[in-house]
Amino acid sequence: xxxxxxxxxxxxxxxxxxxxxxxxxxxxxxxxxxxxxxxxxxxxxxxxxxxxxxxxxxxxxxxxxxxxxxxxxxxxxxxxxxxxxxxxxxxxxxxxxxxxxxxxxxxxxxxxxxxxxxxxxxxxxxxxxxxxxxxxxxxxxxxxxxxxxxxxxxxxxxxxxxxxxxxxxxxxxxxxxxxxxxxxxxxxxxxxxxxxxxxxxxxxxxxxxxxxxxxxxxxxxxxxxxxxxxxxxxxxxxxxxxxxxxxxxxxxxxxxxxxxxxxxxxxxxxxxxxxxxxxxxxxxxxxxxxxxxxxxxxxxxxxxxxxxxxxxxxxxxxxxxxxxxxxxxxxxxxxxxxxxxxxxxxxxxxxxxxxxxxxxxxxxxxxxxxxxxxxxxxxxxxxxxxxxxxxxxxxxxxxxxxxxxxxxxxxxxxxxxxxxxxxxxxxxxxxxxxxx
Length: 436
Ligand SMILES: Cc1ncc(COP(=O)(O)O)c(C=O)c1O
What we know:
The chain is 37% helix and 16% strand. The chain is of the alpha/beta class. It folds into two domains: 10-62 and 326-435, Aspartate Aminotransferase, domain 1 (Alpha-Beta Complex); 67-323, Aspartate Aminotransferase, domain 2. The strands form four sheets. Strands 4-12-11-10-7-5-6 form a seven-stranded mixed sheet, sandwiched between helices. It has a four-stranded mixed sheet with strand order 1-2-3-15. Bound molecules: pyridoxal-5'-phosphate (PLP). Residues 116-118, 121, 150-152, 204, 209-210, 238, 240-241, 266 line the site of pyridoxal-5'-phosphate (PLP).
């Protein structure tokens, strides 16, 4: 008997060995079998093309497969692949640090490298804690953040994030941070209460991403800067998502015209091509660690700190960002999607249309980030319609990942007008799907 054997598919092999992030394997449908990606399009194994409307978790900045970055990485790999960054240095790390100091807000003069957004946050938190200890103010250990904050999944990053719904299982193990409503009065009251135990204030400036694309005004940021300055407390800007043009300027802090004391960058730092992050610090922070005491050094480092290939990617990406004016390009993309949504969403009550019950609330945009809330159905990140809507979007050729009842788009700079219109069309269709 001639038994024909077919080899297992990628999805079948994946099911046997992979454990995916933020995935309930007991419920969710099979992952997309992706074979390649170029520009704003992801191609599946069977040739299906899907527009990446969320920049693959907010990382892909210019578009997939950006030649200049890939080339810079390849050249670097052949010249110097990896060397430890303790007791050694190299041109790509120094050059990137020089460029970052030039382009980030005034006063950020030191660059500490790490690997991803979460570790950039860990670094910032540890810097602040040790900074206070060096000044005999070790009691300053309580960070103040915003409700709905998300800063990553490592323990320090979880501790300053909103535990609902992501970190509930770990809540009791997290050091206590204080989360405040996003207004100056509430933050002032929290700082008053903390007195000399307050360590600093951390936030995702202008747009809180995972918490639901919640947007603040630049005026709020300016007031917060003034408040921290008045109390001599460090302001930490988590620009892991907002950095490199997502909000219409190179950094969200630029939109408000403020400079933080520490700034965390990742995701778009390398154009999304390879993991790398930095924590930028003001000279005052750096100086506070400089002494003749070895024990007063900043004890933090990762194997791949300042990885040369990552630095080369980031340098190439930064030059593209500046030469192509990526912040303006993304702003135009966001404006196009927003205007298309406004054309159609009024039917659902996003605008005062006389509809008895709006189906959509809070259409909002900052630069290349556009979002709105579905008014009906379950609310919150674990809302059961989210995976249904995700599948409906994929079936329509657009990769979206609703944050519970919040729909948003944040495509890369390569996105064409036609692709913007398709993204908007599918978002509108999802409102119908959610209401069905
Ligand atoms: C604002 C913000 N900070 C930190 C992180 C964590 O970054 P990573 O996933 O690279 O660890 C994220 C990730 O989405 C983020 O959006």
